[in-house]
């Protein structure tokens, strides 16, 4: 017991809000003995620390939820949550501040926050790739240089002119350097998420901004190290030189000693030997050792953690470390750093309006300088003014790195409380403006119109087919390649495949690695896990291109949140003039033959594509389509087309039409008719159309039936001598007989092709089936074939035809009077009758 009667009390000094406070605490008051003993949880360090974490995390998540509709990045909510919890808002309530954030708890809170910051900066270093700087073009280098040099020069020059008003610190050089670094930083992780949310990530503007941001971030860390060295040595040149030289030695040790060891671990993982827990613990311990080393040198510990992470190859080892650390660090520990920053941000300290306005002026001038420099470089490279202006605002994106700079500057007493509070608020405002301004200014013209071949029915059977094949994972690849190969790609009838690898943007560092690597050239293969999967997927398509004739493959990557991913896919399909978007089903076949959902978000994604696609869409339900290979020499494939009528069924027939020329494919076309169909027959419609004095009323049902007859008869006539094609007809009275007829079909088919909707006439054949549909995106027939209780476990392709708004029926009845309308009706009927008479000689067709 100490002299004052306390149980071994310790004394520490805490400085929050500019005042130094002497705090006495007892090391025995860590955990409570229970509320039933009369203890107050807030008097003990561990329960209080846990409650502080809960409050900080909940506040951050609530603000993220409310700011998401405003399209604000998460870092804005995190910084703002710290301000809300600090003395500027809730801290003004004395009972709240004394109970939840008392002075005695801040030492533990700051220690945990800096530990989380240490490991977060390690993750930032891991997710960066130094090699990207060497591969960046001159344009990105020039934009990064202009985006740093001009704001740094303007900010430091303006601050020097107003130095007697904006800072009372005697270390003016350190103040100018810290301010210049804070003004010239571009936070590339935050920028990547903004670009993804604004659908600019895969654009030329997005790739240029990402490349420039990576270079900017690297230069900012070098300037920060110099600023810290000068601040630590109070501006003295000789100690500063020793600090910088020691820091350079540390960097050399990391790159030439630690990096080879990390590569050795990565090679072990790639060879399948694996890395045990000892190796992982060794790497994680190295983070703290790196932080201690740079702290001892005189540079902040976060610099050591960042450089240490920078030398870790962003391959399997880097991804493994990210998976083990990221959720815990970014979800629990990192918000504590923003809470500490918020506790230090006290708006009541802003008492001098001259200082406040001058600092705001410095920030505005530096931001305008970054925008002006970017616009000049963009103009030099003949980029549009709007694009240069948007790029300048993107380069003004702030984030955690700037908060680190400001906090380090305050810890080193380079920034006072007033300057710190002003700069935090201005940084939040600047980042909040980026997304609205970029969305308003940069509106790229979407070429959603202007090409004709948006569906296969309008294209000739031997015309080039452009397919956008969407891939979520490597499991989707074999079936998609098999389907493409069955579509008979030849030099006379080629298929151009755009293999689009879809990656969900979740805010994880592994996604940022994909973003970073997506800006590189195609021949530079990413080395992280998602990048390896990306490489396997693209390699499979490229190998197929080399061994198959008539196929051209172009690989793409789209990184986006699933709720808005369909916008990227539709934009790419329109830009590439795709005829068909090929989508994998959201379920895959299990070992016992059942269907298991892969990701529920994929189902909603498919539904959005069906609603917004600029061309035809097909959903492939794979149940062994690629089991026996996909080449022409593989086992023969038997496909069946179920035709009920309507645009989607005609599009399905158009796709099956391409397959009949494949030497290893046999096709069975089954057309269903409704007995006692209560609508005029083609003969009666033709007779009515021939009377020029009559007003011919053509309903949607009759019109669609005419189109169906014409297209089916054309198909029959052109494939009259093809022994691999079989055509049959089945007459049914209702949906029950339709289901029975489908179930009675032979089990020799490998693939069923159906339309999603059966049109006006065909809906009577499937009306009862729609009530039991589990997956509406497949339509009633496709859902029946894909259901797990269906006897035939075969693959299913469901097709939806693109129909322009002008071609859609209006009120359900079209009045064709005399001239153009009547001529159109007569032309349809004439073509239909001609096709029927042409096919009359064909005795090879069977009819049931």
Structure description:
By secondary structure, the chain is an alpha/beta fold. It has two domains: 54-441, Na+/H+ antiporter like fold, CATH 1.20.1530; 465-841, 3-Layer(aba) Sandwich (Rossmann fold), CATH 3.40.50.12370. Helices cover 55% and strands 12% of the residues. The strands form four sheets. The protein has a ten-stranded mixed sheet with strand order 5-4-3-6-9-15-14-10-11-13, with helices on both faces. The model is unreliable at 1-9, 515-531, 628-634, 679-698 and 806-848 (pLDDT under 50).
Secondary structure elements and pairings:
Layout: E1 10-16, E2 19-25, H1 45-67, H2 74-85, H3 94-100, H4 106-127, H5 131-135, H6 138-161, H7 163-166, H8 172-184, H9 188-197, H10 204-232, H11 237-270, H12 277-297, H13 301-310, H14 316-344, H15 353-380, H16 385-394, H17 400-411, H18 417-441, E3 465-471, H19 477-486, E4 495-504, H20 509-518, H21 529-547, E5 551-560, H22 562-575, E6 580-584, E7 587-589, E8 595-597, H23 600-612, E9 616-621, E10 637-643, H24 647-659, E11 665-674, H25 682-690, E12 696-699, H26 700-718, E13 725-732, H27 735-743, E14 751-755, H28 759-762, H29 779-786, E15 795-800, E16 813-816, H30 820-838
Parallel strand pairs: 3-4, 3-6, 4-5, 6-9, 10-11, 10-14, 11-13, 14-15
Antiparallel strand pairs: 1-2, 7-8, 9-15, 12-16
Helix pairs in contact: 1-2, 1-14, 2-14, 4-13, 4-14, 6-8, 6-10, 6-15, 8-10, 8-17, 9-10, 10-11, 11-12, 12-13, 15-16, 15-18, 16-18, 17-18, 22-23, 24-26, 25-30, 26-30
